[in-house]
Amino acid sequence: MKGFTAALLVWTLISPSSCSKAWPTHTACRDGNLEVLYQSCDPLQDFGFSVDRCSKHLKSNLNIRFGIILKDIKELFLDIALFNKGSSILNFSYPICEEDFPKFSFCGRRKGEQIYFAGPINNPGIEIPEGEYQVLLQLYNENRSTVACANATVTHS
């Protein structure tokens, strides 16, 4: 997707510190009654993310696209927090890159390198109930320094 990569490069060149505004809200997917919107909460950079097929039934192998300019990572972890009406529904942590067990080809890359991942991710196949959900996603390195973070809203009407 050439437009996706070009947009990613433009986003990383513009920093909220050079503007007085937050990063824009992006659409990860939209299909019928389901919409997923996200906004970077990292003050230093934005990133690109999309879901190939937006469906209220999440398949166990969900195809995504993700692109970002890296900060140094030896290890990389993902925390996900899911909320509905202000109440916590789910907290999940997942090691993406461990020093002795790299799961992806971008593990161990250095600051300034671009990650672009397009492919399936394993997750439990679930049906998304009607409602509006807030999701906080945080990628951080072995020092707990933020590599990327996003606030997302999932709306199923």
TrEMBL record:
SMART domains: ML (SM00737). Residues 38-154 form the MD-2-related lipid-recognition domain. Keywords: Signal. InterPro entries: Ig_E-set (IPR014756), LY86 (IPR039945), ML_dom (IPR003172). The keyword Signal applies. Transmembrane segments: none annotated. GO terms for biological process: innate immune response; lipopolysaccharide-mediated signaling pathway; positive regulation of lipopolysaccharide-mediated signaling pathway. Residues 1-22 form the signal peptide. This is Lymphocyte antigen 86. The lineage of its organism: Eukaryota, Metazoa, Chordata, Craniata, Vertebrata.
